[in-house]
Amino acid sequence: MEAEKDIQKTTKCLNCGTEFEGNFCPECGQNADTGRFTMKLIAENLTSAILGRDGGVWFTLKNLVTRPSSMIVDILNGKRKRYFSPFPMLFFCLALYIVILSFTNEHAFKESFYDSQIEFKGLDDSEQSQTEVYKLFSQTLDFLNNHYTLSYIMTLPLWLLGARLCYGKNNRKRYYWAEYIITIVYASVIVVLFRCLIKLTYFIDKDLSLQLGTILSPIITIVAFTACFKKMLGFSIAKTAWRSVLVTAMYYILLGIIILIYVIISVIILAKRLQYI
Ligand SMILES: [Zn+2]
Questions:
Q1: What is the distance in A from the centroid of ligand 1 to the CA of 10?
Q2: CA of 18 to the centre of ligand 1 (A)
Q3: Shortest CA distance to 65 belongs to which of 221, 249, 193, 255?
Q4: 36 alpha carbon to ligand 1 midpoint, in Å?
Q5: DSSP code for 27
Q6: How many CB atoms lie under 10 A from the CB of residue 124?
Q7: What is the pLDDT of residues 127-139, one digit of tens each?
Q8: Cα(243)–Cα(228) distance, integer angstroms
């Protein structure tokens, strides 16, 4: 009797209430051995999230740097549990970027804003409206630069559109939009991590850091997209790289068009206000 009890050791899942045998709930996947939270458990959870082989951040980053293309094909083909999810990973990297940014040029936006306020005094109406347009443009660019993380998330659809347009008709048919998004988000992790490294050069040379950021950003993006998309698309490295150049160009063109539309609309609203008040 007692031996039989040992073999049929059923557990009631604490998450969904299903009765089951084994280490994991077959309905919701929760661990059978779920006790109360202890400091030891938290330490174990954190350690396995960061260092663990199964879905750990470090393991995923290592794969993303050493074999990005193969890792992404793995993930698209269903080998998912071993890798950390793309979106949390990107948010983690963007958070890291914000931390580094807070030590470097956090007040750049305020400075340029006050500058444009000062030069605004003592001008007649037409000069004033010209300055307003200029101010609008520079403030929009300032905003995008200083809210890099926000603008990155907001402009992800532009990368997606660029990739859909430039990576060929066959691949458009072969893959879903969402599968392109997953690859783009992993590529973005590489881009953001490199931007973090570039930002760190601020502590060595402030001007160098800004110049590196401007020059290297498009190059890093092209490299990251080439590295992540190559195997998935089935192109040669040269072809993937060339198409990635087009994707990047397309991104900047689309972004330019959107900023232009925004400025034009703002100018129209502004002109109406100046006319009627
Ligand atoms: Zn369950």
A1: 13
A2: 5
A3: 193
A4: 17
A5: T
A6: 7
A7: 666 677 777 777 7
A8: 13
Instruction: Quick: pLDDT tens for 238-259.
Output: 999 999 999 999 999 998 899 8
Distance 55 CA to ligand 1 centre (A): 21
What spacing in Å lies between the alpha carbon of 39 and ligand 1's midpoint?
24
The token duo for 68 is 């990005």
Q: How far apart are CA 276 and CA 274, in angstroms?
A: 6
**What is the distance between the alpha carbons of residues 160 and 180, in angstroms, rounded to a whole number?**
7
- Cα(123) to ligand 1 centroid in Å equals 70
Element (H, E) at 49: helix 39-51
**277 alpha carbon – ligand 1 mean position (Å):** 65
Tokens of 234: 């089935």
Least confident of 6-15, 130-139, 186-195, 206-215: 130-139
55 pLDDT above the threshold of 90: no
